[in-house]
Amino acid sequence: MPTKRLVILGGGGFRVPLVYGALLGSFVDEVVLHDVDASRLAAIGRVLHAQAAGVPGAPAVRGTTDLTEALTGADFVFSAIRVHGLEGRVIDERVALDEGVLGQETVGAGGIAYGLRTVPVVRAIARRISLVAPEAWVINFTNPAGLVTEAMAAHLGDRVIGICDSPSALARRVLRALGLAPGTAEVEYAGLNHLGWLTAVRQGEQDLLPRLLADRARLGSFEEGRLFGAERLRALGAVPNEYLHYYYDQQALVRASLAAGETRGEFLLKQQRECYTRLTAPGGDAFSAWQAALGQRNATYMAMEGLGERDDAEGGGYEDVALALMRAIARDEPTPLILNVRNRGTLPELDDDAVVEVPCVVDGAGARPVPSTRLFPGGADLVRRIKSTERAVLEASATGSRALAVRAMASHPLIDSVPVARRLVAAYQERLPELGYLT
Ligand code: G6P
Ligand code: MN
């Protein structure tokens, strides 16, 4: 196979070593890290250097702050950027909480603010990719991932594919709770990113999900089972993605965040600042410092939401989804994966261009949604509503209309109020200079 080059946008990001670790021993020969912040690039470069030590054939790594230079010659582009960094996440979450609505980076007011400042940036990136590397496959991790993938698809078509670890992790946990090995049953799942439901576990003619829902002990054995509780899961007849917790339990979560006195973003901002200081300290062991920070980050994931310690010993994080996706394309090996792609008639509730998160088959021609996919009927209204909020965000960013940004906020079911939406947009604009384009 000819040499393969992967370009990572947001190359100074904390999770980049996870991606690089997954690439060791793979078909990727060269990794180009791009970031707007050279010091973060240098810090992460040190971790990658330590990871590659003594590994024969480890992909070569170089870093640059020049986007065109980075993209030139790319076979794959990963986009994992965070506009305004974790400081931006703190603002997304805190401004929302101050208004008494959910403060979360991808859901509700926070997700809309994050989308409004990210979409113009990713549109410019997508345009640059279409000029400089029109043949490249683009894998989007940038959150809010569904919305961002849809913005990029307007320029890149089906060459951009959005990924998230949560659907495959849910599927893996449900199979394990049923005592099944990964890949031994087919999981039915559909929705939008961070807004989907697992509706069946098929083995031949049988659906094993009712067996799981009837078994309290098995339901207590995995994350989503504990998060949503047996009664609710039975009433639903489906297992929601963990992010549905923010919709089903907003009031309790707002109270918990206010009581905690610190949002996830505020916690991570401190934790990550310390980590990057350590990564650049002369003579320090960058890899151990990174690993310790990763362990702490994983152990505290959704802690405030009552998740408890996460059991991720089995691996299978987003880096594995990304690698499986690239491998399927590069080797033209048909591979089933749950991905964010354009609907193309799959879910009749949404139009063809809507980016949805659904089971796909990936090969050398890209990702195609599995046509038999069906949405959880009890989730259809919410999915339609959130897609129309996303569309308002996309339109507000394309036109620079503050009125549309207010409409996007007001249309979200976790906000559902024009006066609150107006105050939110004003408060976000005051604190985020990237939203100055909304007039
Ligand atoms: C999951 C989600 C990602 C999100 C991350 C946040 O992995 O799928 O979309 O970025 O959680 O984790 P954090 O440690 O930043 O709170
Ligand atoms: Mn995600």
Short account of what is shown:
By secondary structure, the chain is an alpha/beta fold. The protein has helices at residues 16-23, 38-52, 67-71, 85-98, 109-132, 145-156, 166-177, 209-213, 216-219, 223-228, 230-236, 245-248, 250-260, 264-280, 286-299, 318-331, 380-399, 402-411, 418-431; strands at 5-9, 30-34, 60-64, 76-79, 137-140, 160-162, 186-192, 195-203, 206-207, 239-240, 335-342, 355-363, 366-369.
- State the end-to-end CA separation: 51 Å
Task: Return the average pLDDT rounded to an integer.
Answer: 96
What is the CATH topology descriptor of the domain at 5-162? Rossmann fold
Tell me, what's the shape? globular
